[in-house]
Amino acid sequence: MHKILGLLSFILFLSCSSPGENVTMNSVDNKWNKKSEQKFNLEISDPQNPKNIIFVVRNNNNYPYSNIRFIVNFTNLQNKKKETDTLNYVLAKPNGEWLGTGFGDTKEILFQYKLNYKFPEKGKYEISLVQAMRNDFLPGIEDIGVKIETAKP
Length: 153
Description:
With 153 residues, the protein is mostly beta strands. The chain has a single domain, classed as Jelly Rolls, CATH 2.60.120. The protein has one helix and ten strands; from the N terminus they run αββββββββββ. The strands form three sheets. It has a four-stranded antiparallel beta sheet, with no helix packed on it. Strands 3-8-5-6 form a four-stranded antiparallel beta sheet, with no helix packed on it. 23% of the residues are buried.
């Protein structure tokens, strides 16, 4: 049942995207292993237009925390230059109510990573995410994604 709801919300999410958006999702099957790096390959053809890089997280009621921490590696594959960030995002209100949108047990929330980011050159880039929580296997995370959209002036 969760997979059907997830698939329907993913289709709805894609149908609501505008032409300047690119969304890539990886399923982590409700148990994101700390050693499992989620990789996203980007092809940038118009570096003159600034982009917003946004992370997409889908979690369910099995997720035991109100926040999530990522270690992000952002790599320019042309020159192998790599930036590493450690990020903390809030998933729930202080009363335990999940943030984000969705119906049923699954919620989807968007987190800003880089806004109005101007890619240095045309070409291929890679973003990889590793969960940096206490658990070796993080329950309740269904999907992780990256959304690239052209920034609005």
